[in-house]
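Hi R.,

As promised on Friday, here is the backbone we talked about, encoded as structure tokens. Could you run it through your design pipeline when you get a chance and send me back a sequence?
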């Protein structure tokens, strides 16, 4: 949309320059206006390119951040599973020790 605006402004500036040239000396001040319109169109085009580049960088940063969050979530789930497995093993060990203690007490 911004690039389209810049292109239209550039065409307007070119058309104004042609009309100023046709008007001769009477169109001299109009030539200045036409030149300013073309400069504005160029600045608009450059600004649009800069904005587009910044948005692309932001999108890339957001994509990387989402990837890192996903990886961190995956690691957290794996760690939670490992903690559950350790807790289960501890319960089994406690039960085995309690059984041994019971056997030792019977003797």
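Update: got your reply. Pasting your designed sequence below so it's all in one thread:
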């Amino acid at each position: 949309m911004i690039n389209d605006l810049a292109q239209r402004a550039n065409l307007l500036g070119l058309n104004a320059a042609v009309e100023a040239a046709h008007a001769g000396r009477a169109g001299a001040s109009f030539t200045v206006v036409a030149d300013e319109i073309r400069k504005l169109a160029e600045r608009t085009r450059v600004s649009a390119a800069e904005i587009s580049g910044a948005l692309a960088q932001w999108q890339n940063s957001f994509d990387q951040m989402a990837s890192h969050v996903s990886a961190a979530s995956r690691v957290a789930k794996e760690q939670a599973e490992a903690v559950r497995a350790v807790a289960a093993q501890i319960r089994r060990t406690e039960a085995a020790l309690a059984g041994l203690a019971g056997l030792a007490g019977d003797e």
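One thing I noticed while checking it: The chain has a mean pLDDT of 87.

Thanks again,
M.
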